[in-house]
Amino acid sequence: MDYITINSIKVPIEGEKNVLSLIRKAGIDIPTFCYHSELSIYGACRMCVVEDDRGKIFAACSETPRAGMVIYTNTKKVQQYRKLIIELLLSSHCRDCTTCQKNGMCTLQSLAYKVGVHAVRFLNNKKEEKIDMSSPSIVRDPNKCILCGDCVRTCDEIQGLGVIDFAFRGSKMKVQPAFDKPLAETDCVGCGQCAVVCPTAAISIRTNVTDIWDAIEDSSIRVVAQIAPAVRVAVGDNFGIPKGENCFGKLVSALRIMGFDMVFDTSFGADLTVMEESKEFAARLASDEKLPLFTSCCPGWVKYCEEKYPEFADNLSTCRSPQGMFSAVIKDYFAEKDKEDGKRTMVVSIMPCTAKKGEILRPDNFTDGRQDTDYVITTTEVVRMIKQMGLQFTELENESADAPFSVASGAGKIFGTTGGVTEAVLRRLAEDKSYNTIREISYTGVRGFEGTKEATIELDGREVKIAVVHGLANAGRLLDRIRSGEASYDFVEVMACRRGCIMGGGQPSGAGPRTRRSRMEGMYNADASSNVRFSEENPAVRQLYDHFLAGKEHRLLHRNL
Per the count of CB atoms within 10 A, which of 279, 309, 369, 478 is most buried? Predict the structure, then answer.
């Protein structure tokens, strides 16, 4: 076996593509800005430089390992090199760290401390740029950009959009949309994946935390929260709780202490989505029209389809997302009580997704001209609220969601991971409602992290072809195959974010492979521990359909097309 020597330690080469991977395999953490294992090698930031036995300095991320190499990761020369890079970056960077949204979580800030930068010797001669607040989902602050290119490659390679890119050269180089247009005037779908990889606050989540605190203080407002399935397996990341652990009960408790009047589980809304989407799918199969049926739960995907592949817009399900359905039901449910109490109900959705902030503003998601979801805050925003409140999250007791929507099926809970919507719909359409059916569906190929998954099942004597895809670049390739006739499906689930909502743009960042896997397992564990596994067997859902929802299904649960 071939080896390289790193700081006098022999490390075997076992198919690694670059020296950086071997350094990390040796248990050594060296700084990086522009390196992400799922993106192309860029090698621009030079923070991962190392020195060989001949005194040569090179970037470890872009160097192919060769047998016999001798490498040192922390020589005096390397230390001085990294320190100079950080100083130069800081010299052209907005340094209002104490008021920055990423204060305490900023990679540039932490690396400046790590390499020992205590002063910046260079003046900042850059002109202050205007902050782009046009998007309801994310904020772009050019003054904090360090030109690492992470957002550019993510938008192009993972999402296939290419909304932002490098412009100009040398000291005038910038990262911006074409012609420096506001994000709201581009093809941006608001997925927030650029914010996830940004090491500073050059791209960040547009926050609504202050608005929520104001509403809680207003006695004339009934503030109702709904918590998306994927939030429960990520909110604990910032409190030292094991990755992927289900923290739904603790989050319910925290929200009540904060002052929320009622707290519900969006998984109940997912059960409603299963009921309506499975009914729509069965109808389309029977008529053999508008197939394949594309899921409509992901707003980033819906916008992408409408703008990039408008010929498939009629194939999108008419169902609202779980958030949209549930908010419409909540607003209608409390309408009479609002009149009696002299209050108004405000619905706050806690989501793993930044695109949800844009979805709530779409007129086709309104009911009788009314905006049903008032605000969306992400997992990272609710973490900030918990810390502002001074709550010891790990010490909170588990509490359950409020009645009358307190029961959610396991099928609704797995919406947070790629393949979950498909699996839930298949459970609904299956004639046999036994445990064996659940196991058989889970083995059809809809689970897992592959970019595109395919499965074939039999429904009512008909062979049904299914595709599950996540990441918009993968979705684009799939749509191209369908358009050319190379592929044919009956049902297609699409999530804009790689691996689904568990890795949404509003989730805590810095999640590696083990965290992703733990979050996915956490979703399936939540399903397995549920008393109800099928959406149609949820007693609260049956009660709703039999009484309150009767005759209102289309008005409250479907998009107003």
Answer: 478
**DSSP notation for 458-489:** EETTEEEEEEEEESHHHHHHHHHHHHHTS---
Report residue 264 as tokens: 């519900």
Residues 230-251, mean pLDDT to the nearest whole number: 94
Token pair in block for residue 533:
């596994």
Amino acid at 406: S
Per mean pLDDT, which of 28-32, 108-112, 225-229, 508-512 is the most reliable? Answer: 225-229
Q: Phi, psi (5° rounding) for residue 52? A: -95, 180
pLDDT at 560: 86
Start-end of H helices in 182-239: 193-197, 209-217
Distance of alpha carbon 492 from the chain centroid: 19
Encoded amino acid at 6, one letter: I
pLDDT band at 3 (very low <50, low <70, confident <90, very high): confident
Average pLDDT over residues 447-459: 88
The pTM (predicted TM-score) of the whole model is 0.90
How many angstroms separate the CA atoms of 554 and 557, rounded?
Answer: 5
Helix (H, G, I), strand (E, B) or coil at 243: coil
Give me the chain's average pLDDT, please: 91
pLDDT 10s digits, 474-506: 999 999 999 999 999 999 999 999 989 999 999
Report CA-CA distances (Å) from 345 to 112, 201, 371.
Answer: 46, 33, 12
pLDDT grade for 275, boundaries at 50, 70 and 90: very high
Three-class SS state of 294: strand
Closest CA to 47 of 115, 97, 137: 115
Give residue 35's pLDDT band: very low, low, confident or very high (50, 70, 90).
confident
Angle of helix 266-287 versus helix 322-333 axis, rounded to 10: 120
Contact 400, 260 (CB under 8 A): no
| The pair of three-digit structure tokens given for residue 253, joined into one six-digit string | 């408790």
| Amino acid (1-letter code) at residue 515 | T
146, 200 in Cβ contact below 8 A?
A: yes
Which residues touch 176 (CB under 8 Å, ≥6 apart)?
142, 164, 165, 167
Q: For the chain, how long is the longest CA-to-CA vector?
A: 81
Phi-psi region of 394 (alpha: psi -120 to 50; beta: other; left: phi over 0): alpha
Give me the helices (H) in 375-471, please: 379-389, 410-413, 420-429, 435-442
Average pLDDT (403-427) is 90
Q: Where are the alpha helices (DSSP H) in 368-409?
A: 379-389
Can you state the angle between helices 76-91 and 107-115, rounded to 10 degrees?
140
CA angle 406, 537, 448 (to 5 degrees): 90
